[in-house]
Specification:
Layout: H1 7-18, H2 39-46, H3 50-58, H4 66-75, H5 80-89, H6 106-114, E1 120-123, E2 129-132, H7 134-140, H8 148-151, H9 153-158, H10 172-188, H11 193-205, H12 207-214, E3 224-230, E4 234-245, E5 250-256, H13 262-274
Antiparallel strand pairs: 1-2, 1-5, 3-4, 4-5
Helix pairs in contact: 2-3, 2-4, 4-5, 7-13, 11-12
Protein name: Transcriptional regulator
GO molecular function: DNA binding
Domain HTH cro/C1-type: 32-83
């Protein structure tokens, strides 16, 4: 099959060749014929099997679903225009400006990757987790295995099962800020059906959310201190900062601890003892290339 007949495969190979391992937080081992990513490295980052990636590059599979295309775009650190081209090559419409954006700019992806000493994650405007680094997985558990409800911070905060306590302790200021954020998202993306469903579902399930939503509450995210209970290192008291990305409607959460403190030592223990078992996160499809029904990706 010629490259003209397999634009998708040609694009994947070209973008894989230009992406250096260091750019995605990988260490290059052994002799490499090119500076780019190996197939197994890209497959691991995107959460697909190597065999499925080979089929895509060779044109034997030509219609990956939207979550897989979005995962590949993030793993390859594509910009918005390139992401649109990849969708079109896969026979999919480009991501709509009417929906909550989930595109993570390459600079933000590099930031997440290179802040390897701290837990860092990126959320969309509806507080759906998009991507995270290995330390986030080490601290909170690998989100790749979480159900959809666990991937959305609004649902996880307000829709806990009876008797289930919040992982980081209840925080009324955070609840107010989350609801205020969600209201702003609804105003910015009124045509997003997933967003409307999120509000309706959580309002039906949570009296607390209903109360805050109906009150027209306003709030803002500020630096705060979180208590995290970890099965391996015990209790950690961490500073939590929410950073915004101008022009992209993304939220970046970063957990840190003061240098030399017992909590910093516990974070370092996590880094050296657990971080090798997880990799930089994306919304991960099944290894055969299909996607778990619980995972929604708006890309």
């Amino acid at each position: 099959m010629s490259s003209a007949e397999n634009d998708l495969g040609g694009l994947l190979r070209a973008w894989r060749d230009r992406c250096a391992p260091a750019d995605v937080g990988l260490t290059a081992h052994g002799r490499r014929r090119a500076r780019g990513l190996r197939r197994e490295e890209l497959a691991g980052l995107a959460g697909v099997s190597v065999d499925y990636l080979v089929r895509l590059e060779q044109g034997r599979s030509r219609r990956p679903g939207p979550p897989i295309v979005a995962a590949l775009a993030r793993a390859l650190q594509l910009d918005e225009q390139e992401t649109a081209v990849l969708h079109q090559a896969a026979g999919l419409p480009a991501p709509s400006s009417r929906a909550v954006p989930v595109h993570v700019p390459p600079g933000v992806q590099r930031l997440v990757t290179r802040m390897a000493d701290y837990p860092v994650a990126v959320f969309a405007a509806d507080w759906t987790l998009i991507t995270w680094n290995a330390m986030w997985s080490a601290l909170s558990g690998d989100p790749a295995g979480w159900p959809a409800a666990g991937r959305n911070l609004i649902r996880a905060t307000f829709c806990r099962a009876p008797g289930e306590s919040a992982a980081h302790g209840p925080d009324e200021d955070i609840e107010r800020a989350l609801v205020a954020d969600l209201r702003q998202a609804v105003t910015s993306y009124p045509a997003d059906e997933h967003l409307r469903s999120l509000v309706a579902d959580v309002a039906e399930a949570s009296p607390r959310f209903r109360e805050l939503w109906n009150s027209g509450v306003a709030g803002r995210h500020a630096s705060s201190r979180k208590v995290v209970r970890h099965r391996l290192v015990g209790e950690l008291v961490l500073d939590c900062d929410v950073l915004t990305v101008p022009g992209s409607d993304l939220r970046i959460i970063v957990y840190t601890a003061a240098a030399g403190s017992p909590d910093a030592e516990r974070l370092e223990f996590l880094r050296v003892s657990a971080v090798h078992t997880v990799t930089t996160g994306v919304s991960r499809p099944h290894r055969d290339g299909s996607t778990p029904p619980a995972v929604r990706d708006q890309g």
